[in-house]
Structures are given as structure tokens and as C-alpha cells.
């Protein structure tokens, strides 16, 4: 029996307008009514996931900032993590010369050193505003430590930076592609999969009782955790080959879950 359904947001649950299509909304409600718990897993902030949960009117566990924060649907904090401040400063300095749009996540706030026109376009895609803080990097400290550094730009150059950072900081940082134009720097050993592990332990749910669905490289850590992984059909080929099944929508994956549980119930 499947007891937990975990879905990514951008490119998966959400459409291009960052809305939940009605068929996905209805599917998650049917899933919850059938007794299957729902979890949202995203690189987005906890507040953004809460906004989507409220809109869905479905109780959802939340894995935010690629696993930096893990909350149950009752708002119990299971896990949180952040960079060591001096490491974050060195990472920021190493990436600065590429000239990408920067988004710095500290706690539950998104900061940017300045708000250019390019930054405003990225901000418009988020479900919460950016806070301008020109000295945000200089302010990094134990009580103001970033959970995630995000960079937006052209993918070929982002991959160039990704390779350079991995070479310069081996074993110190996770560098993952999280969207078609975004690369995230995460504290080492922080990922959606690690975050999901904390949730499974709390809920007493086994990996084989879990279904996950996503579309990008930051979802791969979840794919390895369960035999029931779905990848969106539009995903990069390197992501698609790592999942056990493909789907065109969250609703399609939910239909599989409901059918699988109905079959298991007959046995």
C-alpha cells in the first residue's frame, strides 16, 4: 500500500503560470480522502509551500529549500540546516564574477544585494517578495546563516559555474540544477532525499510505501529513496532515465497510486 505521495512543485505540480491545474488539485484531494498523506518538496521557501497548501485545502507535509527545512502538516519542525557562514562567503565570492541573478535564502526570507530589472523578473516567479540588503553577504553569521544560494541565468554558463564550484570546493557543497535556468548551492548532505528521510522516520512510513514525482536534478535524491519514482515526461533525458516511471502530470501519477492501493486492498 502507498501511504505517502511526494510531489515537486515547479515543472511538476505547478503549470507555467505557477498555478496548480484543476486536474492536479482534484487528484491530490482524492488522494487525501483515500487516506494517503501528501508532501510538497521544493527548492522554494517554506512560506511559499504554505501558500500552496492553503490554496489546495489539503494538509501537506513540506520539504522546502531542497531539504534545508522539513515540516509536518502540523507545523512540527523535523530538520533544518544552513551553511557555515565563512564557507558561504567564500562560495559567494567564487560565484560572483559570473554575473548571474542572485537569490540568497536566510531562514524564511529571500534576500538580494540589489534589485535589478533581471532580479525583478525572477522575483515575479516567486510567491513571496525579495528583501534588498546590500550587505547581506557581509552579514553572514551564526545567527544569520544562508540555507541556499541560488543563481539564475543561461544553462550552459550555469553548468560551467557548477563544474568550477564542485572542483574548487570538493566535499563542501551540494551544487544542483533545480530549474531550467537555476543552479542552487546547498550545504553538504542537504537534499530533498535527505529531508524525505526525516519525514519517513517521523511518519513510520517505509520507502516502498512512498511515491515521489519530480522533473529536475534536485529531485534525483528522492528517486533513489523509493522504488516508486515518477518523472515528468518533459524532463531532461538524464533525469528521466533515473526514475522508474514517466507521467504527463501529477494527476496521472495519483491515478496510478489509487489503482495500486485498490489492487493491494483486494489481495
Describe the protein's architecture and organization.
With 267 residues, the protein is α/β, with parallel strands linked by helices. The chain is built from ten helices and 14 strands. The strands form two sheets. Strands 5-4-3-2-1-12-13-14 form an eight-stranded mixed β-sheet, with helices on both faces. Strands 8-7-6-9-11-10 form a six-stranded mixed β-sheet. A hairpin with a 2-residue loop joins β10 and β11. α2 (22-33) packs parallel to α10 (250-266). The model has no long low-confidence stretch (mean pLDDT 96).
Question: Keywords, please?
Answer:
267 residues; alpha/beta; Rossmann fold; Hypothetical Protein, Haloacid Dehalogenase-like Hydrolase, Chain: A, domain 2; 2 domains; 14 strands; 25% strand; hydrolase; Cof-type HAD-IIB family hydrolase; HAD-SF_hydro_IIB; HAD_sf
